[in-house]
User: Fold this.
Amino acid sequence: MNLGRDVKQIQNLFKEIQDENSQSQSQYQQGNNRSTQKPRRQKYSDREIERQQQIPQENYQDQNFQALNEQLKNRIAVLENNQSKSNETNEILYKKLMEQEQQLQETKNQLKRVHGEKSWKVNQLDDLNYRFHDASNSHNDFLKNARNHSESLQKELMQKEKEIRQLKSDLNEANRQLSIVTVTQEKNMDQVINSDKRLQQLENENRKLREELQDSKQQNDTLTLNKKAEGTFLVEVEHLRADIKRLVAMLRSTSEFKEFADLADDAGQIRYLKDVKALSYIDYGAPCKCKINRPCVDQEIVDERCLWVPEEAWKFAHNFRLQYDGELTENLIERLLFEFSKIWSRREQLTINRVKAACAHEVSSLKRQLKNNSTYDEHQAKATITRLKKQLKDAYKENREIYAQRNARNPPGVQWVAETVKMTSKANRDVKKCGEKSRLLREKLHDIHALKFQDNSEKTLFMEGATWVARSLMKDSDKLQSQWKNISMKFPGGDNNVQEMDQLIYNYNQKVSGYKANCQKEMLLAQSQLAKINRGGSSLGIIGDNF
Assistant:
């Protein structure tokens, strides 16, 4: 009877193993199906929608890249979850297999004892041994299959990682294309200045609010300490002493306290895990960037930031322990927080490195674009030169036609007077245009002089453009003066009208000379301003496409 009951137990064990095998295979298939599914695109929160409404129309493509970043992060989280589930399933199967092997061993011992007592059951025991061998072989095959399946999952994860790297490269390429599209307008600069002022005001308000929050926290801590019991107060004092001691050691040993302070500000308040059996470079009295090898110490040297956790998480964990009657010890809670802190630090470091690389790439792209692209002043000057050349060509053509028909249309004196009046009016218009250009140049020089202490080093190119415009104006004035001299030499003496025209020509020459002197003064002033800027080493930038 005992032997029959043992055989039934073994058969039930075989059935349970087969059921667990089928369940594990179905779980693997479901995990694979979930890993292959594309993550749904998350909806934007209210804060992101408000921020998208404030983004200019030119930077609209940045929203698509942010959404792509969110999809990539969700996909990575799904892959990590699948891997953790597969590892947990393998551990459970391995534990069950060990339990079954232990039960098989106990059954073998029981069969040996039965064989010593009753020899007539030898054949049945042999049969059972044969079944036991078959069961062990089936267990070994199942374990091999599970290992093979785990390897296949690892290969799939590697493939997914390759896809993630490819998507990251595509994202970087899209960011590079996005960085090419830049618009520098005067209104945007005004908005940036206003935004900086507003940001400064908000920072001041934020600093005041933080000070008020710190005062309120101190008051709250004082009230809380007064209400707590004596034992809890002693525990809090012990933790505070450990925190202060650790902070002093960190300040004395590391030069990267700024980043750690930023981490503390982001977390609000942090706690040091004093009961975790882990050492950092501060425990050895070495700086943070120093790398030491201690073969005699069989312990991992961790980053100092991993030993600090947010105070809110620390309080929640200990309250959880007290709520469940101390089933979790303090060492286990601190070990859990320590592992979480390692994961958070690794994630934040990767995020910081990625942001720094993207910023450096964008800065280099903008610098390269500013060096290669021509300014709006050059384009406008080329268009103006082309238009003036065309007008000058048309004027020469018209003058030639009029000169060819001068005898048929008008007497020589009237023709000369009309031509002189026409050229005088045209010269006056040119003088007005040149005066307007000179006024614009003065305004631009005044703006550059006002902005010479700002961080825009490439506005010196505008000074060079201003000097080039001044030289071109001087050349045009020299040509006009030479033309008037040639015209004045063509008039014969003795005619009153011609004498009046000579007087007008003389007055015009005086005006041209005065204009030439003013242009020279403007050019000298621009050159002096450029020399001052170069000597002072101030940073002036290109005005951009506003001119």
